[in-house]
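Q: Structure tokens for this one, please.
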Amino acid sequence: MAIIQGHAKSSGVTAFYPKTIDQSLRFEDGNSAYLTFDPAADGDKDNWSLSFWFKRANLGLTQLLFGQGTNGSNNRDIVYIAADDTLEVASYGGSYVFRYITTQKFRDPSAWYHLVISYQSGDATASDRLRIYLNGERITAFSTSTDPALNADSAHFNSGSPQYIGRYIDQSGSYLDGYLAEAHFTDGTAYDADTFGELKSGIWVPKEVSVTYGTNGFYLDFADGAAIGDDESGNTNDFTVNNLVASDVVPDSPTNNFCTLNSVNKESVAVFAEGNLKYNQTTNVLDTSFATMGMPPNSGKWYWEVYVLSGNRGTLGLSDTEQNTTLDQPGGTGDLGLGLTGAINNVYVGEDSPPQTASDSFTTGDYVNICYDSDNGKMWFGINGTWVDSGDPDTDSNEAPKALSSVTFVPSASAYLSTFIFNFGQDSTFAGNTTAGGNSDANGIGDFKYTVPTDAKALCTVNLPDPVIDPAQDATPEDHFNVALYTGASALTVDTGLPSVDMVWIKSRSAAYLPRIFDSIRGDDTAIYTAVAVAEGSYSVNDDCELNTPTDGNLYFDVTNAGTNGSGVSTVAWAWKAGGTGVSNTDGSITSTVSANPDAGFSIVSYTGTGSAATVGHGLSSAPEMVICKSRTNADGWSVYHKGVASDAETDYLWLNLNDAAVDNSAFWNDTAPTSSVFSVGTHVSANRSGANIIAYCFHSVDGFSKVGSYTGNGSATNGTFVYTGFRPKWIMVKRSDSGVATADWYIWDAERNTFNVAGKTVQANESTAESDSGNHDLDILSNGFKLRIDYATVNGSGNNFIYLAFAEQPFKYSNAR
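A: Here is the predicted structure, written as tokens:
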């Protein structure tokens, strides 16, 4: 087994990436870690570029990425993240040569960003002289933008003054907290983002770099832990290392992203350090924190280690990502998963009282070994390499005493006055060992202190299962769902980006018109309105929208209609691919016509109601988790089944066209949950009116593509609820499902209207009102889910239940940070 910088080199890197990066450099701000280099003379201060990948750890702190100058107050050029998580790029030498502060927030600690800054002062267009690219996209939205004058030298960038990576200019402070990889600086040539990366299946990935570095240029790959600052450009512009050691070179990288603790999914007391691997709690209250990566059902065994640095009272185990359940005391009603606590000396099962007792306990100085088998819900705990109660994950025997249900889990920890250090495979030297453990997982990945159980894997993206819709196989979420923005006009064609469209949901943004759906089962030019309880096509004979004419993924509007293509009206269209022409389905007691896309977990179902309890075939391979029904021929409401409203969701219903709470009523779904072949309807007219033509839209979660779920609001504007989806969302719809608020609408966000965080532009499925950006519905769309950034009761009320439906832009396995 090859060892690099004291760590096991990954041998399982996916072939998805044109260029793989095997390591990064971890910066801990508490250690005052940084790099510095002092060029001998000025380079070309009119033409230069900077490129690097970075992954954030703690947020809300001023952190310098790269800077150059002689005085931090009066003579400094900087690239840094401000305390409000915006990015500033500025050149200052008594006055600003240029200064740009983004409006977008960089608050995604779960994946990697790629940043490129390109300066070419001779460009005729002032705003093009300094260009900033994030993940290949040029940043154009700034709260401050001071353009450089024509042919203006940067004050200090590419000068003979000292360069700093990870610390503010000539001052102690603003230290970087996170990871840096693959840093390039070019002197004399300004390169754009596509020199350093490329789009592959809609994801920005690194590629082999061929540049002219010039005299002051450098390339830091951090591949040698014994010579961290070595310049690999050929210039020998080596950086001096300060408070960084060989074990800070870790295998966490843009092409194999490792799990860490999640700084946007923790309670208020815990403090993270060491690249979000160290959990420290000094306040005597119960606090729970979660990791960035879930372990999908049926994805095999997973292994990680935790070192108990101090304290002896705490819990280590798993929490359910569906509800973000906190770990509690043994036998507590809030627990979901298994844990160890040194205070009471036992292994326990959540909700068991009294807790199950084990023969061993952990204490300060111990390593806790954890193995979880997602195929059967088994879990094992070990201490210093010996499995508790003769457990043996190699033989699947003597597991902890209660199996977990088959849902996605994330590693979690809670504590009173304890400090834990996690190793998900990045670093076995975290307890101060001078020699790496050298134990890799079943795929040859990672660096663990103890022998990894047979077939168990480190928590990193290379080890995540390939998504059903897999970018590595030239398939993308945009083949099945996409968002198109357009301005209405007559004789208009709108490209959705899909190969074909079977359903489109259209909403005007700049004017108050009803949202409406067209689908391939009901036929072209036939709208059904989601905000009102009216029959199909009730409002206009000019409901104009043709799908797939020809089959090309375009929407065609031949006749002007204000709600679909009104002249000058800004409009959004959300488009789904189903199965094309409907086919007969006899799985249920009612024969249905179905257009289904099983890979995407979506189908369109048409049937004729009977007025008595019945079943309807849906054409999917798994049970629908959300079903939306509407009579086409009658003024009945839109009835909704959603698995997240309660544990017995089949007994409840919601209205899509209203803001009402969920209500118990067996007449809707016959108190029967959907199965892998049918969903059930009762006697209510909205889902089963006798003789009515009824349309139903069915959805179930697909790993890496879609999620039907729920969350509990926490009522915090500063640390709102985080929702793990397992992908970077492109579209999110949220509804508060419990009682208490009269304005709990069905709010919809998408990444086309909200191109960066904070995402606050919403429209409602149940209202005709125009798009709002009031700040009442702010959230961050992240690489693995979304984070509420508001305490508004309709999206984040404390203790309230919220249901959601979300579709992916990128699966987390390959996702860029947002």
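A few notes: Confidence is low (pLDDT under 50) at residues 1-13, 330-337, 349-354. The two ends are 35 Å apart (CA to CA).
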